[in-house]
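Async update (no meeting this week)

Hi team, since we skipped the sync, here's where things stand on the single-chain job. The sequence we agreed to prioritize is pasted below, unchanged from the tracker. I ran it this morning and attached the output directly underneath so nobody has to dig for it. Comments welcome in thread, and please keep replies under the output.
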Amino acid sequence: MRNAPLRASVRALVAFSVFQPDILPYSSQAMELGRLSHLAWQSASAAAAETALFWEGSLDGQPVRVSGRMDLYDESASPPLIEEIKLAPQQQPEAPLPEHLLQAVCYGFMLCERDGLEEVRLQVSYVSPEGQLTARFTEDWTAQRLREAFFGLLLPWAAWQNRLLDHIEARDESLLGLPFPYPDYRPGQREMATQVYTAIQRRRRLYAVMPTGTGKSAAALYPALKALGQGLSLQVYCLTARGTQRIAMQKELERMRAQGLAIHALTLNAKESLCPMDSLRCHPDHCERARGHYVRQPAALEEALAHPFWDREFVLALAEKHSLCPFEYSLALCEIADVFICDYNYAFDPQVRLSRVFDARKKVTLLVDEAHNLPDRARDMLSGGITHSRLAEFRREAGRLHGRKAPLYKAATALMKLLETEFISEEPERLLEGIGSLLEQLGGIYTPGGVHLARDLISLMGALHRAGEEGEDYILHHQPGKSSALHVINLNPAPYLREVTRGLGGCVFYSATLQPLAAMRGLLGGDSEDGLLSLPSPFPEEHLLTLLYPLNTRYRAREASLRPAAQAILALFGARPGKMIAYFPSFAYLRAAQAVLVELAPDLPLTVQRGGMDERQRLDFLSDFTRDDQPLLGLCVLGGVFAEGVDLPGSALTSVAVVGVGLPQVNELRDLYRLRMEEAMGDGFGYAYRFPGMHKVLQAAGRLIRSETDQGVLLLLDDRYAQEEYDSLLPAHIRPERVQSIPEITQKAKLFWRQSREGGQGHG
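Output:
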């Protein structure tokens, strides 16, 4: 017998057994209209609104609690009247929808139990947003009939919940004796694990710098799972910025499963990558999987419980077997999984965050990997925009398919005219009305490109609402006329991140490059009560030689810097020909430097990153470094796919050169960000330029030393590394030795490698 009660809301209890069978387009506007119809009808009624009710009892000794609020309750009526209010559908209903009536039934049962009533009157009213009654259905139900219907809903729901509890008990038992997944803790891992557990226990945030090689994934995940098993958390979310970073968490879970861990772990993928259809249109008229999806889904959920890992291949296989929408099936798995591995946006993006999880429970733990990426990602999530040309292109397609007299065509035209209006950014209500009208039409008729346009419009609508509430953190950029565009841009994500993470079951933000730590804590929504942890590199300092060649690589000096930069790179490569990568501030600089390198050394073994490389091309690029020991020089961009989340241990990488300090390109938007950060946090240039630039530099440098035996040479090519503002952002294990000439680079690098050989040590 379990002591903790099973808990359900009336809505959730009914929805478990009675639901619409098909996947239908979600309409935020319909939700808002439903809210308005509730408020309008409640305000016009003399009955009591939002009266809370609950029922507590037991099933086979298992405590159960069901609760909710009646829309309206008239105690003076005979018999007492319970009224459910629903938004009037477009087509007049001939009877109340079963799920609507059954919500009233649950309240009727609880009311009879509480007050000892023999009978109640149930009423379902369908109301327009303006508060006009369009249909009403009234029935008198006896207490016995209510009891039978209530338990008809409760018993299957409780059986499923007990099935889930069986797994949780087995999971917690396995966690009780689960050892750390490695024979010994690496330096810093135990301290990190302790701090993570404490953050979860206290439901606070932790910000940690964990250098490459510390074993971040195990040090964060292991204590989070231990806390999960002790009931301190209900679920653990492992959030990453890149798909490649998911692999580390998956490997740690596999390792712990081999040691006895019983877990359900879901890797959540984007809808576009899962959808088997030729066009993304979640509608039963277009997709046979959408038709009847929710009828077939319970069997697939039951089958999933027999498997520990629900990765992309698993989700696709079961979705195929049961003819389900893979993404919608993934969302259902979210509610029963223990651990999630997914992108940042499922926790932080207002438009796609898992509201079914985060709005329903607070004891959720977030482990945010490579957290230095989150501020820029969060600002993008909170921003929105649309252009006249985008709307015009869509309108042409809508006119071709539906005609120029179609409501969809007219709604697109109306919004285009609003964008052309000179001062429309000063009238957000008109904009919101125009966006809402187009969204309503998009939900009612299919047009190619409509799904993506709807997403952008919803993002813009959300950004407009937030800008109206937090104006100082947003800017509205409007370009009127025929080439018009409207962008609502977030300039400070900290307040939003603070609110989203407030009260969760512990949030851990960690990275090898989260400097300066206190400043990044503030930018990521933390406050002075949240923990800071900075760990030293676990590797011997003598395994890394860092050289600083003071070159001017600022934009105006780029042309003059090309030849000395190329000469310095060749000097390092020639000191010990092996595997080396040189990182550049941009593709333009990379291509210019490549031309000079080829001119100086025509036979140089080169491999070069290109823009827009697909997954196969990326793997081929990396395999050039791992397939043999032949010398190779790779040319890559800072902040790119080969500068972060890439593991090239041992002889796969022996030297790294970084050209410049990685500063983002100066433009109007970045300068607006700088000004806002200056007002909100001070050091605007640091937040907007220096910090993100040095994060890129340190990520690139972190590709070099990946294990206890790795050794290598890091060459920094920029005079700004000698300035205190930049030098202070370098971790303790990167201590640059200044060189004054190209030959000195070769000389010092050769000496380093000779001493390494004489010392009998391994090499990077």
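Quick observations from my side:
The longest strand covers residues 62-74.
The two ends are 58 Å apart (CA to CA).
Reply here if anything looks off.
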